[in-house]
Write a structure and sequence with these properties.
The model has no long low-confidence stretch (mean pLDDT about 95). The chain is an alpha/beta fold. Helix 3 packs parallel to helix 4, helix 7 packs antiparallel against helix 8 and helix 8 runs parallel beside helix 13. Strands 1, 2, 3, 4, 5, 6, 7, 8 and 9 form a nine-stranded mixed sheet that branches. It is built from 13 helices and 15 strands. It folds into two domains: about 170 residues, VC0802-like (2-Layer Sandwich), CATH 3.30.2130; about 200 residues, 3-Layer(aba) Sandwich (Rossmann fold), CATH 3.40.50.620. The two termini are about 35 Å apart. The structure holds adenosine-5'-triphosphate. The site of adenosine-5'-triphosphate has 19 residues, from helix 5 and strand 11. One of its GO terms (molecular function) is tRNA-uracil-4 sulfurtransferase activity. Its EC number is 2.8.1.4.
Length: about 400
């Protein structure tokens, strides 16, 4: 809901504010570009105004809520509101609250949440909250009995007074937080057709890292459904980052999977992970990426015991980022639903099919290397060099 006449989106960021002025300016520029791209991608008319601390999106009343929703899909944004802009004159703010109350407050409880950035103003936030509350009360009391609830109101009238303008709003929509995408270095995202890896990729994007998605084609053990799902999740992720390349590197891995299944029993999943990591490392060198992100979590699978993660990680000298390391499956599923990468179809394909009946949970590097086919990592490097770029 927005106040009548609202035509602007007030965007709030969080961690960007903790930066030095130079870094903050740099990050605010990136955020403005990303906001513009999101609006364009969704055909929402709007212009982004770069302002210190609070970027604004100028649009029209018809599109203001869609623009607010788009802004809250931008990484780095903590929240956004559809706002009506007024001067910093207290009387004008109170009159705006009165009008908003007449048009939008039709019962239940209310509160005023007032803040001011400029402490030199001739009134305090408390003055605004108190006098605003009275103005709202008097605007509606002939229609119904208003009630104030400061803890859990049905409707919150927000007022934010900045140096030159004041903004009045009725709703605060939460964004992902984090840092603007592109403010950190890119990483290779190993994406499978599973639930976890897209969530992990989203999490690292949230911290500002663009992803270079890589899918390992598992041949007969993967299949078109598996790959299609991986591609679909990348498409969904790219909706959050329309100004970033979303093409996927498809790394050929079918032959290696056949080889591992035919030659190894207990440690085969671990050698397959080593193949993944080394291929990702080679790809990273190709595209100038600086790390690898996976959807692994401690103990979620036999290949993800702490010991096995330690052993398999030795296949690369690049850092492997595992944002879901300590998450429970239920939490990950909830996150996948939230960001739109969850689908109900749990395709029985991919690594599940490669897994042996008795999997290694307690590997040691030396015996694993002995059991592993010779030249596995060289094959991974070659596969990464042969990876083709595909549209998700
Ligand atoms: N075919 C693949 N291509 C690229 N990366 C993969 C592939 N399979 C697995 N991975 C990576 O290895 C991690 C651990 O593999 P795991 O066997 O748990 O995956 P999964 O269950 O198939 O998928 P997810 O972890 O996405 O639910 C994944 O989170 C993903 O980052």
């Amino acid at each position: 809901m927005h106040p009548p006449g609202a035509d602007t989106v007030l965007v709030r960021h969080g961690d960007v504010n903790t930066k030095s002025n130079t870094v903050k300016r740099y990050m605010e520029d990136i955020l403005a570009e990303n906001l513009t791209a999101l609006l364009e991608d969704r055909s929402i008319p709007g212009e982004v105004e770069r302002r210190w601390n609070r970027p604004l999106v100028h649009t029209d009343e018809e599109h203001v809520e869609a623009a607010t929703d788009a802004a809250t899909d931008a990484f780095g944004v903590v929240s956004a509101s559809s706002v009506l802009t007024t001067s910093t004159e207290k009387d004008e703010i109170l009159a705006t609250l009165e009008t908003a109350a007449r048009e939008r407050y039709d019962g239940g409880t209310f509160a005023v949440d007032a803040r001011r950035a400029d402490k030199r103003l001739p009134y305090t936030s408390e003055d605004l909250a108190r006098e605003g509350g009275t103005a709202i009360w008097e605007a509606v009391e002939d229609e119904f009995e208003p009630a104030v609830d400061l803890d859990d109101p049905n409707l919150t009238f927000g007022v934010e007074v900045r140096e030159d303008f004041a903004f009045v709003y009725l709703e605060t929509v939460a964004g992902p937080g984090g840092l603007p995408l592109g403010s950190q270095e890119p990483v290779i995202a190993l994406v499978s057709g599973g639930i976890d890896s897209p969530v992990a990729a989203y999490e690292i994007m949230k911290r500002g890292c663009p992803i270079v998605p890589a899918y390992v084609d598992l041949g007969a053990y993967g299949g078109v459904d598996h790959e299609a799902r991986a591609m679909e999740t990348v498409r969904t992720l790219s909706g959050y980052a329309p100004n970033f390349d979303a093409q996927v590197y498809r790394i050929p891995g079918g032959d290696v999977v056949e080889l591992l299944v035919g030659s190894m029993e207990e440690g085969r999943m671990l050698s397959l992970r080593r193949f993944f990591y080394r291929a990702a490392e080679t790809l990273a060198a190709r595209v100038d990426a600086n790390g690898i992100v996976t959807g692994e979590a401690v103990g979620q699978k036999s290949s993800q015991t702490v010991r096995n993660l330690g052993v398999t990680s030795r296949a690369t000298s690049l850092p492997i980022h595992r944002p879901l390391l300590t998450r429970d499956k239920q939490e990950i599923v909830a996150m996948a639903r939230e960001i739109g990468t969850y689908t109900d179809s749990t395709i029985d394909a991919g690594c599940n099919r490669v897994a042996p009946d008795r999997a290694e949970t307690n590997a040691r590097l030396e015996p694993l290397l002995e059991a592993e086919p010779d030249g596995l990592l060289e094959r991974a490097e070659e596969a990464a060099m042969n990876a083709e770029l595909v549209e998700p």
